[in-house]
Amino acid sequence: MTKVLISADLEGISGVVHGTETSPEGYDYARSRALMTAEVNAAVAGVLDGEPGAEVWVADAHGPFRNILPEELDRRALLVRGKPRPFGMLGGLGADTDAVLFVGYHARAGSGPAVLAHTMNGVNLDVRVGGRSFGEIGLNAAMAGYFGAPVVLLSGDDMACAEFGELVPGAATVEVKRALAQAAAVALHPEEARERLRTAAAGAVVGRGEIAPFTVPGPVEVEIDLARPHTVDLATLIPGVTRAAGGRTIAYTAADYAEAYRVALLVGQLAGITPA
């Protein structure tokens, strides 16, 4: 049976433009999570249009990983919910995964104009893998590639689509909004976005054999620029992680990409700790 994983974020959903719309404590979060659930359902339907017998897993991949409304999700899909968990935004990923779709994704930290651009949190200023800047798109695409799974589709704003296109040429993109600034965009009507996403998902799954997995061979050298000095102090407590020149950068070398990814996830968790 074909297994397809949909990793769903919130910042790249049509109509979502501001941080207060993506936080459980924020204005209009309830609407945003409903829009997110509906776009995920469109992707699920598209996958099953293209491959009716597929097993579809959905990884809720925004913030607390508890955004998608379970009772509103397409009942044919399995939902991976909550954190912490193995492989973070790619919960459910494994050697049995045949294809991955990124729904509602955003561009990396420092991109502009790009709606709600960041990388994992508000503390990572830049993440470089082998000297190349990666956002969540690159980090997660390479993790999927580690297991031989191609990322066949991404939906989000135009900047996210362009970033993905550079990493995975030939893969499908669905531009649901055009960025004007960090918190402004010209967006498709949600129903139009869903229709385009469903059609593209069907074609992407059918044509998955034409998309090569994005891989990063080991050993993997990683550098992370951090906004908070305290996070640097904490990160250097991890064996193998050192403070690089400049004081705000940490560096480490991992044996393979899975190890590199796990350390990056741990550093991201440390970013949420404030000084005692």
Automatic annotation (TrEMBL):
InterPro entries reported in the protein's UniProt record: DppA_N, Peptidase_M55, Peptidase_M55_sf
Biological source species: Streptomyces carpaticus
Protein name per its UniProtKB record: M55 family metallopeptidase
